[in-house]
Amino acid sequence: MHWLFLFIAIISEIIATSTLKASEGFTKLIPSVITVIGYGISFYFLSLAVKSIPIGITYALWSGIGIICITTIGYFFYKEPLNWPTIIGIAFILIGVVIVNLSNHTSH
């Protein structure tokens, strides 16, 4: 169940961060409301996830997957540029998330 909580926290954070840009500095009502609610849901489920998953693992997965997804959303939906240093950095984040996740499974 704790992995489901982490999944919900990640999805909520991705939605909140995506609509943060659309809120245009909290001047647009609907995206602003979605952003605030999304972050609230994200932190609530993140707090449930850390009850069973080590906080370092939880945060690494939450932030790493969030960064990868937000960068992808920024590229496709907001037409933000991707350059090679960014792509390489994201690859390192992805590798780090995989290593952290694998080390968590082998340490039990």
From TrEMBL:
Membrane topology classification: Multi-pass membrane protein
Highest taxon in the source lineage: Bacteria
Cross-referenced InterPro entries: EmrE-like (IPR037185), Small_drug/metabolite_transptr (IPR000390), Small_multidrug_res (IPR045324)
Chief localization: membrane
GO biological-process terms attached to the record: xenobiotic detoxification by transmembrane export across the plasma membrane
GO MF annotation list: transmembrane transporter activity
UniProt-listed Pfam families: Multi_Drug_Res
GO CC aspect terms: plasma membrane
Gene3D superfamilies named among the record's database cross-references: 1.10.3730.20
Keyword match Transmembrane helix: yes
Keywords: Cell membrane, Membrane, Transmembrane, Transmembrane helix, Transport
Signal peptide segment: none
Residue stretches spanning the membrane: 26-47, 59-78, 84-102
Subcellular localization, as worded in the UniProt entry: Cell membrane
PANTHER family to which the protein is assigned, alphabetical: MULTIDRUG TRANSPORTER EMRE (PTHR30561:SF1), SMR FAMILY PROTON-DEPENDENT DRUG EFFLUX TRANSPORTER SUGE (PTHR30561)
Family assignment from sequence similarity: Belongs to the drug/metabolite transporter (DMT) superfamily. Small multidrug resistance (SMR) (TC 2.A.7.1) family.
Record's protein name: Multidrug efflux SMR transporter
